[in-house]
Amino acid sequence: xxxxxxxxxxWTKSFKVWISELKFYxxxxxxxxxxxxxxxxxxxxxELTSSLPSKSSAGYRxxxxxxxxxxxxxxxxxxxxxxxxxxxxLKELGVEGLFTLxxxxxxxxxxxxxxxxxxxxxxxxKELAETDKKKFVKRTFLDHGKLVYKNKANHPExxxxxxxxxxxxxxxxxxxxxxxRVDYAQRHNYGTYVRWAQEFLPQVQKQSMEASYEFxxxxxxxxxxxxxxxxxxxxxxxxxxxxxxxxxxxxxxxxEPKVLDAAVLKSVPVFEKSNxxxxxxxxxxxxxxxxxxxxxxxxxxxxxVVTPSIHGKAFLDYINDPLVRNYPWPSSFTSAIGHLxxxxxxxxxxxxLVVPKTIASVYSPSAVKKQADDAERFNYMDGDFVxxxxxxxxxxxxxxxxxxxxxxxxxx
Amino acid sequence: xxxxxxxxxxxxxxxxxxxxLDSNYVSSFSKYKRYVLWLFSILFILFWLxxxxxxxAEPKVVIIVAVNSGGGGVLKWKSEQEWAIERISxxxxxxxxxxxxxxxxxxxxxxxxxxxxEYREGWQKVDIMKQTMREFPNAEWFWWLDVxxxxxxxxxxxxxHIFDRLDEIANKTLEAFNPLxxxxxxxxxxxxxxxxxxxxxxxxxxxxxxxxxRNTEWxxxxxxxxxxxxxxxxxxxxWEHREQDALEALYANEPWIxxxxxxxxxxxxxxxxxxxxxxxxxxxRYFYNExxxxxxxxxxxxxxxxxxxxxxRQYTQLMQTLHRRWYSMFF
Lengths: 412, 331
Fold this sequence. Notes:
Chain A is of the alpha/beta class and about 400 residues long. Chain A has a domain at about 75-355: Spore Coat Polysaccharide Biosynthesis Protein SpsA, Chain A (Alpha-Beta Complex). Chain A has helices at about 10-50, 85-100, 120-130, 135-145, 170-190, 210-225, 250-255, 255-265, 310-320, 320-325, 330-345, 345-350, 375-380, 390-395, 400-410; strands spanning about 75, 80, 100-105, 110, 145-150, 160-165, 190-195, 235, 240-245, 290, 305, 350-355, 385-390. Chain B has about 325 residues and is α/β, with parallel strands linked by helices. In chain B, β1, α2 (about 80-100) and β2 (about 105-110) form a beta-alpha-beta unit. Chain A: InterPro entries: Glyco_trans_34 (IPR008630). Chain A: This is KLLA0A06215p. Chain A: Keywords: Glycosyltransferase, Transferase.
């Protein structure tokens, strides 16, 4: 226990005594001791100055943080989405018309993009819009990835990330999807970050929508983190899904620790038939990644939340690592996450696996009519926060179902 | 009876006085017994509650020395010279740790069955780091040192040699020195992050013979991610330096790892003897220079066709001459 002086006056008194003693001593010992005292003071000053850090160290240049493109364009609004009306022209141009195709000696074809690509100036934009529509659309497409929102004041807390696909979906479908996100974000002062999925093709090795759509999702979330540096949550929500309750904020639906704690699945297998289980004692306050788990026990990648924390970034960067991405997974993104959670307890500790009703109620045509209890727990019911059309690609019903349900949102 | 009476009497008299006196003492003690007991118990509780202790506090820096890294166990007998190298090396670190109040742990890196599969070879260093971090939860830095190293300037503390001037000596990017030609300008890396891992590069890339890690959440996460079966399954034939190559791959591809790693010049904590990096004989960046008083010498790869014992003896002698004082001639 350190001794703490309670009476300060005592000390000052003794200090005075000490000073007077010194004076007396100096008086007695005249000039020689005066000289000694001065030299001691000078020595002490010298020691002090030499121990201070010198300011001469050359300023070492730290490179600036940037996204996939080195240049960025400031967005005036937190609602970032591409000009969807270019859909037709983009489809006409195709991926081969948007990126440079590089073919090496072995005949490997690869689309590449230029990280140092400069954005269009206002003059160029005006000129191109009138003279060369195709080139204008291409440049707009390439510039969209450079948009960032770095306005610190009024920065959105939540950003909704969606990727849209002009090759496989119609303009109406895309308009409905984007409008739904924008409507929702506007109500709650959230941001949106909608990108063309094709923008990310040069970053993956299997450069087609069919092979890489799933792995473009984490790339898009990572890009969103760069575009919104002060946001706290990034919610990826698939294009084949709609937010049905526009008035419910994501915080009250899922993010608040109390709500999240109720939704977390504790001590369940990480994915179907896994030997690794989620933690029995999970602190919802420390959750950095939130992934819903379907009724069948699969990890649902159509809707998930990542925070821009060390764990959140590690999660995305791990999945985006070419070694991980190109591994022959049984079912791509889902398996990669499953593997990550199984093998890396530090990530698992910060990952909340939640019930699907929170942010991923799956639409099932047969279960809507409130039949079995099981379906009630997992599938979409009227009044649920969101609806996802997982599996609609196989039955080719995405556009019809989404359009049908979009009318229901409107009535709200 | 009569004969005994006076004696008994006097005895009683004699005894009575001191007895009275004694009982006086006892009564006065019993009077204050309660207070003494209270005082004692309060002091006792304070002692347990406060972090006061007579032994030194937990160290802020812990040095990890891995021994038996060249196989060992049942595969190879440890030769007399290997024992001697180990002894000198550990003694060198022990003296250094003692001088500056650092912690020291010696970890066995002998080839065990757990790590014998080619997929799992790189696991061990990571496991040892994790284990040590659990043992010293309050330490700030961990310094890993291979056994074939010698601290040549033991008077330098790590604070004054490294931590206090990280901005001057450490490089956050590979632009200045990049033997592996890893892409230097990648997306999403925030180089302004504090460095949690300090490593060096030799002529062949990252060198993990001597490196430092800070006790942070990032470090724990990296140690968790570092060994991943997906990477090893695909690359175990290519990654001949195991965890070193794995770290290079992680550094190249994952921005969250890159932004917390800083590079020190090799000679700052890991200078080579002339035999190592033999293809770059004239590149002064790699090799120990006694005139410039390099901090640590690492006889990396000395068991591949070089003489470990000879080098160890040479540098031990050199260290003695470098630190000879003028008054040592009198002893």
